[in-house]
Design goal:
alpha/beta; D-Maltodextrin-Binding Protein, domain 2; 5-stranded mixed sheet
């Protein structure tokens, strides 16, 4: 009986571990969400190309904002584009290096720190609503809070996005240089996986302040949050390929995005369904556009 009980416990443990692993795989695989499954368009008879997105949002949010972009690329190139996600920022870079994906929406920190490691090339930058390739990072708080500026943060709690992002890496130094407040002066600090999670935690009252990308902050305002400080960053998040991406795929991606007529009434309607960061058009980009990011990172000793 004793041995049979042990075998029972071992078997039960194996089942539990299997369920947990399956749950994890489901969390990063968008095709497991039946209501969000992309339609298979076998009738197109086009070769498939995979598009990666760093994990700045949840898989559901990425699918909702990026599947319309896949549909656009499929319609306007020689390929059928499908999303392929990773559970981490660097995981997306590894996918590019292996040739598992042809192109990816990156973070600027990831691109700068891993360009040489994975033989990456930036090809495009999204524009913001003012037609500029400038990104802003926003400090947000609940509108009911008396917090008016980042000089009011001492003794409060703060939540930041992933340490794999520029926001997570830079903000501790930026706050200290701007206000003199050190991270030890906060009541609590936490890093979370997604920008939208930051906004949700501030909205729920679990944290006093958070820092997010501009598009997330603008959506958060509609839900009861306010912006208390804006930090201009001189480069929007890049669209990146690797040495494994063939030149025809590269050229067709560039042509498709640059041919978007943003002001066209016809295009305005379907662009509303795109991830907001991609819905204002693109410009060609080169590695030199990210030198200001390198300058920021050198100041916090992340790059020799």
């Amino acid at each position: 009986m004793k041995k049979s009980g042990q075998f029972y416990l071992i078997g039960l443990l194996i089942i539990v571990v299997g369920i947990m692993w399956g749950t994890y795989q489901q969390a990063i695989d968008i095709t497991t969400f039946s209501q969000f499954k992309p339609e298979k368009k076998a009738s197109l008879h086009k070769p498939v190309r995979y598009f990666g997105v760093v994990s700045r949002y949840t898989p559901r949010e990425i699918f909702q904002g990026y599947q319309p972009i896949m549909d656009y690329l499929t319609k306007n190139t020689s390929y059928q584009f499908e999303l392929k996600l990773s559970s981490s920022y660097e995981g997306t870079a590894i996918q590019l290096a292996r040739g598992d994906i042809s192109v990816a929406a990156f973070g600027s920190f990831l691109y700068v720190t891993h360009k040489d490691d994975y033989d990456l090339e930036v090809i495009l930058q999204p524009l913001n609503k003012d037609g500029e390739s400038i990104n802003h990072l926003m400090f947000i708080a609940h509108e009911s809070k008396s917090i008016q500026s980042i000089r009011d943060l001492e003794g409060l709690s703060i939540v930041l996005p992933s340490k794999e992002s520029l926001t997570g890496q830079w903000m501790p130094l930026y706050i200290e240089q701007t206000t003199g407040i050190k991270f030890n002066d906060f009541n609590s600090i936490e890093y979370v996986s997604h920008h939208t999670t930051v906004a949700e935690l501030v909205l729920s009252g679990e944290f006093d302040v958070g820092v997010v990308k501009e598009p997330v902050a603008e959506m958060a305002i509609q839900k009861g949050l306010k912006i208390i400080h804006s930090v201009p960053v001189s480069a929007t998040s890049p669209l990146v390929i690797s040495a494994n991406t063939d030149s025809i795929t590269k050229d067709e991606i560039i042509d498709a995005f640059l041919s978007l007529k943003i002001q066209s009434n016809e295009n305005k309607d379907f662009l509303k369904n795109w991830d907001e960061e991609f819905s204002y058009g693109f410009k060609r980009s080169t590695d030199a556009d990210y030198d200001p990011i390198r300058k920021i990172l050198k100041s916090i000793n992340n790059i020799p």
